[in-house]
Amino acid sequence: MAELKTHTFDAVIVGAGGAGLMAALYASKSANVAVISKLYPTRSHTGAAQGGVGAALGNAEEDKWEWHAYDTVKGSDYLADQDAVDVMCKDAIDTIIELEHMGLPFDRFPSGKISQRRFGGHTNNETGKPVQRACHAADRTGHMILQTLYQQCIKHDVNFFDEYHVVDLIRVDDTVRGIVAIEIATGDYHIFHAKAVLFATGGWGRCWEVTSNAHSLTGDGTAVCLRRGVPLEDMEFFQFHPTGIFRLGILITEGVRGEGGVLINNEGERFMERYAPSIKDLASRDVVSRAIYLEIQAGRGINGKNYVHLDVRPETVNYYLEQAGESRRIDREYIESKLPDIADFTRTYLGVDPVSEPMPIQPTAHYAMGGIPTDADGRVRANEADGIVQGLYAAGEAACVSVHGANRLGTNSLLDLVVFGKRSGMHMAAYCQKAELLPLPENPAAEVMAEFERIRNGSGGIKPTDLRSRMQKSMTKNVGVFRTAELIQEAVNDLKELREQYDRNIQIDDKGNQFNTDLLEAWELGCLLELAEVTAVSALARTESRGGHAREDFPKRDDVNWLKHTFCYRETDGQYRLAYRPVTLGRYEPKERVY
Amino acid sequence: MQVQLRIRRFNPETDNKPRWGEYTVNDVNPTDSVLDVLHRVKWEQDGTLTLRRSCAHGVCGSDAMRINGANMLACKTLVSRIAKPGSDQAKIQVEPILGLRVIKDLVVDMDPFFDHYRSVLPYFVNDNVPADGREFLQSPEDRARFDDTTKCILCAACTTSCPSFWANEKYVGPAAIVQAHRFIFDSRDQAAEERLKVVGDSFGVWRCRTNFNCTNACPREIEVTRAIAEVKVVLARGEI
User: Fold this and answer.
1) Are residues A248 and B58 in contact, defined by beta-carbon separation less than 8 angstroms?
2) Looking at the complex, does the CB of residue A457 fall below 8 Å from at least one CB of chain B?
3) Disulfide check for A395: which of A19, A101, A429, A492 has CB 3.0–4.6 Å away?
4) Which chain A residues have a beta carbon less than 8 Å from that of B53?
């Protein structure tokens, strides 16, 4: 029988990716902190981020944080909260320098300064031309951030609980008391009693069939918060990255286009010239994903199939550079040094050498703009008004500040992690100085333990894999790049039925305690099903098109009725309730979005 | 195509010693990875099969295992690479990586591996930040000096393929030396001396017998043996 153990800390950080580790570094300066992760920290998906992290350092050319802020707001289709965007873009500069001082091995310009390159949607606001803002380390910037932060955590003796899976939040009214976790190796339950809890558990791309996300990205922290009464913000906005490897979904960084790569259809046409005449292939991701989808719909996919080509062959890139009147030229060595991992991925998984052949790509489910609602210090909102859950924090992809609004710009996710991870960590440390350790309620683990016993002993004969694959197919077909009321309703119906099956008939093989990943995967599926449902319910209600939420039946943005954030609650009877919160505007008035 | 899988199984709650499990998986696409095939077994045939995995494209380092006798990442090894050309069948044998205690099936205890990692001071040391508040300057050439060893994902494929590590688990191992190399050759870092003390002791680089297993095993194509040799040269010469 599994045991139950109790630990006490000032603060608990759930998740050890970029946001969790950055928060840990700051919170542990004064507080007694535990970092709990279901993976070894270096397995976190921050490590898969490729192209760069945005900051207006101006190392290559003139740049200003205000330009970065405008680009972010425009990219968000005006749904981002502009006060939070200002914080992020302003803090970006010092935070990137701070990462460099932690030893992060950025690529360098000949001047010795951090190297920067172009990325989608980042512009010089005066000329409208792309600007070099993405600080990068080859095409493994996320790997370097994750490694560097983990290294610094070791240097500063941060407490890690590796391979502990957090499965519940202990909340009493509007305060938190800690979390419940399962030690994966033994199956024992652990209660972490704490003054403050931060969720930095990443996204939930595994709701979809083709995704760039790791298998472990099942939105656990976000689902746990939802179950404990926290509303989820803007869940209908999920980003489909334009360039995933065909069928596999593995990400091909936007940095490929930043270095000069172009998208080509079956007629050999660089079609983005039609959709975004000014910055073409470097338009925002939602714009490019829709363009690819429309090209395929019009029969201009390569060989009539559901993909187009991403072409970074030197002869192609140099041709378009010459056309644009630029003096820069690239060659094989340049691609090998700037995009080595991409070249490795396509060679390994496709047998395609990007130096000599174009890459087959299609949009891939990539990033959750929505999530646990927070303010700019990571404090979790209790409702659509200004209520706060005392001691509860969220940061990174799991959270919604909101700085990404309806569509996130490339390089802003790594930035979000480090800026808001740091701010949350600092705020949490200060909170722990003055807050009392509130008592645990009676049997705080009983409810989630009962749920695990239900899954372990279920005998309905339905395998988790069947439900997962039906969910992924339905979400891909119905809540993808383009949506209609009819399609979304179909997903809502499918998901309701799948959740009933999950609640009644799920059956697993592994009945043991030790390293029971069969059991934990089944529980993760429950998280995905709920987040998929919240996504669909939120999407059905929003009768407009904005950023990543494109409704064929409501093709225009509607600022009169929809310039507001969705807040979706899960009621005690399992039904969902929607409420709305106004967007915080600022310097930038909403206007038509043209690239 | 059809894949015949032979998987080394061990359930600590029911088995006294490891055993072999045999599985047939049909309709495998040659471009599927070994991880895809293992998932087919776990999800469709036997949910008790236990392994670690996360990113599924070779960057997180979770799923290093011994595949047909050599260490590889299951997610980065395509069935087509193992099958005989033209054949519609493949035989794949999968075992946990060697030299670390098996917890369950393909899952091993990684703690000793991470203890070695921690022993080399795997973090940047230099508190004298530039007075202008900006980044340390570093030339592209100085940055290139340690580029190869920044690629390490700590998957343990190298260390657990090393006969010297199998012979003595106190050997710090290739992965930890790769990490030491990444900092020793970083022109900005100031703790090379301390690190060289760790990797220069009797359980450090001199245990390396240069048999290149580590380099062959590395899924990130790091020239591990070369990195170890560079550290040896620094120790022998007494200067970087």
Assistant:
1) no
2) no
3) A19
4) 215
* A143, A151 Cβ separation under 8 angstroms: no
Confidence (pTM)? 0.97
Place of tokens 């992060």: A104
Q: A133, A285, A379, A551: which one is catalytic?
A: A285
Q: Is B18 exposed, middle or buried (0-12, 13-18, 19+ CB in 10 A)?
A: middle
> Residue A363 is encoded by which pair of tokens?
């949009």
The answer to whether residues A284 and A71 touch, using CB atoms and an 8 Å cutoff, is no
pLDDT digits (tens, 9 = 90+) for A240-279: 999 999 999 999 999 999 999 999 999 999 999 999 999 9
**Burial grade of A470 (CB within 10 A; 0-12, 13-18, 19 or more):** middle
pLDDT tens for A14-64 read 999 999 999 999 999 999 999 999 999 999 999 999 989 999 999 999 999
Whole-angstrom Cα distance, residue A547 to residue A236? Answer: 10
Q: Which residues of B, range 202-231, sit inside 8 Å of A by Cβ? A: 221
A35: closest CA among A157, A119, A142, A120?
Answer: A157
Separation of CA A143 from chain center:
15
Integer-rounded Cα radius of gyration of chain B: 20
Amino acid at A281: D
CA-based torsion, A245, A413, A226, A20: positive or negative: positive
CA distance B115 to chain A (A): 11
Rounded to whole angstroms, the Cα distance separating B21 from A128 reads 61
CA–CA dist A333, B150 (Å, integer): 19
Identify the burial level of A129 via C-beta atoms within 10 angstroms of its C-beta, where 0-12 means exposed, 13-18 middle and 19 or more buried. middle
Closest Cα to residue A359, out of A293, A311, A317, A304? Answer: A311
- As beta bridge partners, residue A189 has A4, A182
Q: Nearest 10 degrees: CA dihedral of A297, A299, A305, A306?
A: -20
Listing DSSP states for B196-223 in one string gives HHHHHSTTSGGG-----HHHHH-TT---
Nearest-5° angle of CA A166, CA A224, CA A370?
120
Give the whole-angstrom CA distance, residue B191 versus residue B182.
12
Helical pair A412-434 and A18-27, crossing angle rounded to 10 deg: 30
Closest CA relative to residue B164, chosen from B216, B109, B116, B204: B204
Residues linked to residue A211 through DSSP beta bridges, in sequence order: A365
* Whether A2 contacts chain B with CB within 8 A: no
Alpha-carbon distance B186 to nearest alpha carbon in chain A (angstroms):
9
Compute CA B169 distance to the chain's CA centroid, rounded to the nearest angstrom: 15
| Mean pLDDT computed over B66-84 | 95
Amino acid identity, residue B48? T
Annotation marks residue A300 as catalytic: no
Evaluate whether A375 touches A401 at the Cβ level (below 8 Å).
yes
Six token digits for residue B93: 């044998």
| CA A541/CA A439 separation, integer angstroms | 40
How many other CB atoms are there within 10 angstroms of residue A138's CB atom? 25
ipTM score assigned to the predicted complex: 0.98
Work out the minimum CA distance from B197 to partner chain A, whole angstroms. Answer: 18
Q: Which of A348, A455, A472, A525 to mutate to test the interface with B (most CBs of B within 10 A)?
A: A348
Contact A43 B60 (CB under 8 A): yes
Nearest of B209, B142, B146 to residue B179 by alpha carbon:
B146
The band of B223, judged by pLDDT with boundaries at 50, 70 and 90, is: very high
**By the 8 A CB rule, do B188 and B122 touch?**
no
Q: How far is CA B90 from the centre of its chain?
A: 25
Question: Does the domain at residues B110-237 carry the CATH identifier 1.10.10.60?
Answer: no
**According to the 3-state scheme, what is the secondary structure of A415-456?**
HHHHHHHHHHHHHHHHHHHHCCCCCCCCCCCHHHHHHHHHHH
Domain parsing of chain B, residue ranges? 2-107, 110-237
- Domain at B2-107: CATH architecture: Roll (3.10)
